[in-house]
Amino acid sequence: NGTRYTYKSDYDILVVTRGKEEMGNWVIPQVRSLLRKEEGIGGVSVIHHTLNFLNERIKNQYYFFLDVFRQGILLYDAGRQSLESPRGVTPKIRLEKAREEFDYWFVKADQFYEYFQMAFGKKHHNNAAFLLHQSTESYYAALMLVYTDYKAKTHDLEEINSIASKLDEALKEVFPCRTEEEEHHFELLRKAYKDARYRKDYTITPGELQYLSERVLLLRELTEKLCKEEMQRLTEATPSPNS
């Protein structure tokens, strides 16, 4: 109706080095710093892996990295190393991987939630917050691995949520941050990975834990629904043995 909209896509950048994985602690902030100086660039997710790790993943048909290999745009190449030549990945292979990852991470997430309930019942609130964080992270892991065969190397729920929310719009409503109160709740959960264990000044109330636990149950519901839909899609795309 005469209104013009502009959409800025997020960028995902993979940095590959010959050095150890620990180089990511230096490389990633450097790349982000450079990108912040560029105009017109929206959200950027930067991940780092070594060349050996990447080649191993390509060789073993991890389809997240195969998609990067085939569809990614090369920004810079030092020209001193080469990548493995990938083989094709069938829907059957994707389905097998998806089932394996879902069975592991979804059960793990449920177990963490059960441990959370025990800690909450005993009023061990900081431990309960940490366990709720672990449950959240594991549900996200199930989602990302089923859909992309890749799990982010971070425990920061803000970053994980940003990556996972690209899979389905409904995931953006699990932890809404439209109000100060909603932001505060999510920040408590995000900080629980470290602060709930190591900082004496970390505090969280029973009411805050109750609110967050309800959001995690919503995440569980969406995770199960979306993962089963994706595995069904892969099942339908897999030829039957008699075909």
Structure described in brief:
This protein has 243 residues and is mostly helical. It has 9 helices and 2 strands.
Question: What would your notes on this structure say?
Answer:
By secondary structure, this protein is mainly α. Helix content is about 60%, strand content about 5%. It has a two-stranded parallel sheet with strand order 1-2. Strand 1, helix 1 (about 25-35) and strand 2 (about 45-50) form a beta-alpha-beta unit. It is globular. It contains nine helices and two strands.
Rounded mean pLDDT score: 87
What separation lies between the terminal Cα atoms?
51 Å
* H-E string: EHEHHHHHHHH
Which structural class best describes the helix and strand composition?
Answer: mainly alpha
Rg, nearest Å: 20 Å
Number of helices: 9
- Gross geometry: globular
Spans of at least 5 consecutive residues with low confidence: none
Helix content: 55-70%
Give a short account of the largest sheet: 2 strands, parallel
Report the β-strand fraction as a percent range.
5-15%
Strand segment count: 2
Strands in their spatial order, largest beta sheet: 1-2
Task: Spell out the key features of this protein.
two-stranded parallel ribbon; globular; mainly alpha; 243 residues
Q: What's the arrangement of secondary structure elements?
A:
Layout: E1 11-17, H1 24-36, E2 44-50, H2 51-59, H3 63-71, H4 91-121, H5 125-148, H6 157-164, H7 180-191, H8 195-198, H9 206-237
Parallel strand pairs: 1-2
